[in-house]
Amino acid sequence: MKKLLFILGLLVSGLGFAQDETAKDTVQVDQPVEVPQIVVKVPYGKLTTFGDLAIKIIKVTDSRCPADVNCIWAGNVILDYEVYKDGKFLETKKLTLGGGNEDSTLFKSDLNWLKAYSVAPYPKASAKIDQKDYVIKMLWEQLTEDN
Q1: Bridge partner list, 114
Q2: pLDDT score of 96
Q3: CA separation, residue 140 to residues 5, 58, 77, 108, 130 (Å)
Q4: Cα gap 143→44, rounded to integer Å
Q5: Is residue 113 part of a domain?
Q6: Residue 48: its pLDDT value, please?
Q7: What is the pTM of this model?
Q8: Residue 65 belongs to a domain
Q9: Strands 76-85 vs 88-98: parallel, antiparallel or unpaired
């Protein structure tokens, strides 16, 4: 009986000490949280919607240096794309990625900011890439009044 009371006493005191620790899964946040940026895969020829905005890649001109070749110039990718807003065609635009062009913005409005993030697949000297095989990763940011 004494052993049982002793073990029970240890359990109760152990539980009491466990309650004194602060939760380790809490974090103090002193700054506002950034607006999330979403990376979306946009396949060639498919109308892809971002809120009230939609993009359709209509042509990819890829002059990047193939992965299995040494080149003097890294090359670039030129995207021809159509912009739609609320389901209605707005305009056809062209964007050059690489080759010294730092701005990869496809579209920016009061509510959305869409930037090209990467183009896949990367070219190889041994194989030609069909237009339908291209996928463009886009960085989509829904803007707030603070941006």
Answers
A1: 107, 140
A2: 92
A3: 63, 19, 20, 10, 26
A4: 26
A5: yes
A6: 92
A7: 0.70
A8: yes
A9: antiparallel
